[in-house]
Sequence to fold (266 residues):
Amino acid sequence: MISPSQALTAIPAGLRTPLLAEYRSIVQNYFEHRWSPSELSGGRLCEIVYTIVDGYGKSAFAAKPAKPSNFAQACKTLESRTAVPRSFQILIPRLLPALYEIRNNRGVGHAGGDVDPNHMDATAVLSISNWILAELVRVFHGLSIDDAQKLVDSLIERRTPIVWEVGGVKRVLRADMSLQDQILVLLATNSVPVKLSALLNWTEYRDEGYFKRVLRKLHSARLLEFNEVLMTLELLPPASGRVAALVSAGTSPKRSNSVKGRKRHS
Fold:
């Protein structure tokens, strides 16, 4: 298995760097429920991916992303190339115009309509962008779909204004926050499963028995997945709204009494 730093080294830095920057922006903005910025990043991602796929087919990458004058037609032209992977000939060239259309002609760009489509559209942007990035990793490195997706997940570290990392240790800056909410916020900053030992260290919680009971309660509520065989934890989608509200509240104190008696290491 290749490391995250090797994920897209086959693509020149002038294209790889903005590709990863835009993808991370999409993930971060979606995590913060900032739908419109997520969609705008999706539009920029389209231009970068087009330039990469076009360069791959020509066996000569451009130094930096370029926007075709007629994006839909340019993507259609990519379908005429046969000496490329099927996904580079058909799937990606057909997905990019749809992704670009969301950026240009939906709620992100124009007002009107009875229902705001931004949340729905941002979800589509995230899903399509995630698939495209995983496919680029898979093609350039010959990985399986599962391994490519795991590698893409490892590229993302979500940031929140209420979590600070020091020497590999994460701390929630809201000292008044309940243990349950601390757990959810800390898990939200990781796109891969977190070891129970790490979470105990980050929260400085000493009573492991009670800590596990809290985890099981959150597991039963389907807010996180607690694997008691591997002793790993991962945030589940239903927790996203609760985490977004906590992030939006920032570092301003707000007392929560859902879990009392927090015990720290002496």
